[in-house]
Amino acid sequence: MKNWLAIRPPLPASRPDRRSVPIVLILAGLSLVAIVVNVGQGEYPIEIFDLVQTLLGIDTGNPDLPFVIQTLRLPRTLVAFLVGVALAISGAIFQGLTRNPLADPGIIGINAGASLAAVTTIVLFPDAPVATLPIAAFVGALFMAALIYSLAGTGQNSPMLLILLGIGLSAIATACTSLMISLGSIYQVSQALVWLAGSVYGRTWEDLFALLPWTMVGTALALGLTRELNILNLGDEIATGLGSRVNWQRAQLVIVAVALAGSAVATAGAIGFVGLIAPHIARQLVGGNYRQILPVTALIGGILVTIADTIGRTIFAPIELPCGVVIAAIGAPFFLYLLIQNRYRQC
Predict the structure, then answer these.
(1) How many angstroms separate the CA atoms of 140 and 337, rounded?
(2) Of 22, 52, 279, 287, which has the fewest Cβ atoms less than 10 A away?
(3) How much of the chain is in helix, strand and coil states, percent to nearest 5?
(4) Distance between CA 300 and CA 312 in Å, rounded?
(5) pTM for this predicted structure
(6) Is 104 within the bounds of a domain?
């Protein structure tokens, strides 16, 4: 793997790099394949032809297919894909802002802050509508981000400082989350524990419509701020010399990243490592310009979570593994590899 920290990204060009276009098209095709496979696989396998006919409203002669596809599987699959998109873009933004390859919403504690706020809402306000969870998670994630950044700055003096602070504050938030769970009813406890494992089980169209505006607006804002992210990635001194309002631009990007991570955590629970893995793969494919990195990262993140959900539903069927567990099995070794690599770089 290339040492991307040693490569200063170029200032964004006026037009997208043509080399990234075929990669985006290929990943878009793979995304569609992952979604179709996820919807078609399970205890009740569905042939691709029947799946397409049902989605188009054509009668297949099987009255069970519309319910299985449109009510049970399709909203769950789309939620999984959008959660992956949101977490991946959030991770890419944090890595760009801190110039730290280990930065990830889950690792630096953003997800833990969102989880605490969401679980608190579940326990204290059980009758609250689904749409309130992303708002609560956003507030919790924003508070955690502000706390980490106030203690560590941007992490420029020591890239490991941000990670260590995030791990410590994440442990505190996790302990508070456990306390809130102990105060809840049996139903709330079981709901919170499944949710904390990182799962899209039982997600409905209501969950999808609650997540969709956060992901769409957050993604659009992130893509619109790629020039600022490229400049900030050069360092504060250079960015200031280029006439950038560093603090204002950083605040904008942090709010967008927190909103994306918070809404994803509120919908699917604490799914980690997506924001760590996806940006690294994207850099290997398209280089260091965030104008190309963010779209590629978004598609890779969506594919990762969708595939993880498919594996979790099928590998030990009829028992389901939360997709967060499947991703953690891949992401934990990847994180250790990057941690060791970064340790030698700091020496």
Answers:
(1) 30
(2) 22
(3) 75, 0, 25
(4) 18
(5) 0.85
(6) yes
**What would the mean pLDDT of 4-24 be, rounded to a whole number?**
57
| Domain-located, residue 66 | no
Lowest mean pLDDT among 170-179, 231-240, 265-274: 231-240
Q: Give the span between the Cα atoms of 167 and 293, in whole angstroms.
A: 26
Q: Distance between CA 159 and CA 292 in Å, rounded?
A: 24
Q: Which residues lie closer than 8 Å to 333 by C-beta, 6 or more apart?
A: none
| Residue 9, pLDDT above cutoff 50 | no
Output b/e per residue, 203-218; b: 16+ Cβ within 10 A: beeebbebbeebbeeb
The answer to whether 110 and 176 are in contact (CB under 8 A) is no
Could you list the residue range(s) of the whole structural domain that residue 314 is in?
Answer: 71-340
CATH at residue 209 = 1.10.3470.10
- Decide if pLDDT at 85 tops 70: yes
Count of structural domains, the chain: 1
Separation CA 133–CA 264 (nearest Å)? 10
C-alpha–C-alpha distance, residues 325 and 240, integer Å: 42
User: Quick one: tokens of 167?
Assistant: 């791990």
Confidence at residue 11, expressed as pLDDT on a 0 to 100 scale: 46
In whole angstroms, give the CA distance from residue 163 to residue 100: 9
Contact 310, 200 (CB under 8 A): no
Instruction: Calculate the CA 14 to chain-centre distance.
Output: 28
Mean pLDDT to the nearest integer, 21-40: 92
238 in any annotated domain = yes
Q: How far is CA 126 from CA 119, 230, 265, in A?
A: 10, 43, 18
Query: Are the beta carbons of 105 and 142 closer than 8 angstroms?
Result: no
